[in-house]
Amino acid sequence: MSNWRQSRVVAVTLIVTFLVVQLAIPISRLFPLETPHRWAWQMFSRTPHSVQFVIHTPTDTTDVVLRQHMAQVRGDIDLTGLMPAHLCLVYDEAIRVTWDSGELEC
Amino acid sequence: MLTWLTDEIDPRPLGLARVAVGLAASIRALVAAPVLFRLIRSDTIQIPYAEWIPTPTVPLVVALLGFWLVSAILFTIGWRVTISGPVLSLSIAFVLALDQQAYSNHLYLMFWLTVLLTVARAGAGLAVSGRDERVLRWPAILIMVQLSIVYGFSGLSKVNDGFLSGSVLAGSLEGGILHFPEMLITPRFLSMLAFLVIVVEVAIALLIWSARYRPLIFVLGLGLHASIVLFMSATGELAVFSIQVLGLYPLFLTAEKLEVKWSDDCGRCALFMKRAEMFDLLRVLDASEESGQDLTLKHQGQVTLGGAARIRILEHLVPWLWVAPILRLPGVRRMHRHRHATPRAR
Predict the structure, then answer these.
(1) Arithmetic mean of pLDDT over chain B
(2) Does A16 touch chain B (CB under 8 A)?
């Protein structure tokens, strides 16, 4: 294949990939409207995921400050799947972690 | 169409975009460092996209930041962009892939811009080598499309009850450089502001392509970015975003030269042109003296004189191009006209 043809193929591949990624992903993530999604240019556009975790020990309960357990608190991450198990690991005395819509026995 | 896309264009606007994105990337490495080091802490949750992605460690983060910072600086000065560009793109891609918490829309945009600027051979203009070589148009068009897509989807995704009610804005207008006036934090005002933000973002996405509305769009863009940097939290990240985005605006300016004629009899014109040529980073001026002429500009088939010509010239000079359109606003225009009128006209 000549250099000219090769460069055309590279150009067309890049243009098509760019347009597919840049249009298909943001369009597919415009709905649902409630929470923000990544890779879709949704800057400061929606109410972020917000959840309050509470750690229960045999003697006490403590509200979790998310900032202390995250590299960066982001509104586009649903933490209810992973954070409770992480809190059970980090807090030796925890017997249970609860949040608005559920709980996990440690 | 294909011929137009594969035409060669002046590399300077792309070079300027490269400088802006490179500078933003250099600062962004410093903004990312605390986030990446927090990922290493034992009490920080890790949320990888896949199990095979390496766990962040101190040597990994230090190496990553080192590659990022060095390549960003080299990219900014335009030194071997064919090498510094891919290294910078890969460093950013690695950070984005490392953990879901490392994601940021601005960083994701930076990834695409470094890829596209590398493909566009953005090192061919305004680089340390000092040599300008013409480049293909199509990658520059992709960068412009990217800008429209970012503004467009940012605006469209805001069309929802939460944003339009002003509650999302209320949560974001905290911890900025300036304190947002408390008397304006009312549901009614924030709701109006939210609507305005959507209109501005969608207008920028569409009208930045129109030569007629471009000056207005530049002013709106500058206003939008200045306000988010000043009033919203995450100032560092938003400043980085604004630098890289505003740096792309000159790509939309027409490549056609500005034919300027003036006479030495007009002292102000000579002084203005002397200064203008100092700021002609994009080499758009084609100036010549002609006796008996006041300042006359011929551009895109239009002839403009005096103060109006000065404004149009400033709209093509760095850094005035981002602020000069303000001079077109009715009240400001009157003041400017009065200041630059010849004594006889006054």
Answers:
(1) 92
(2) no
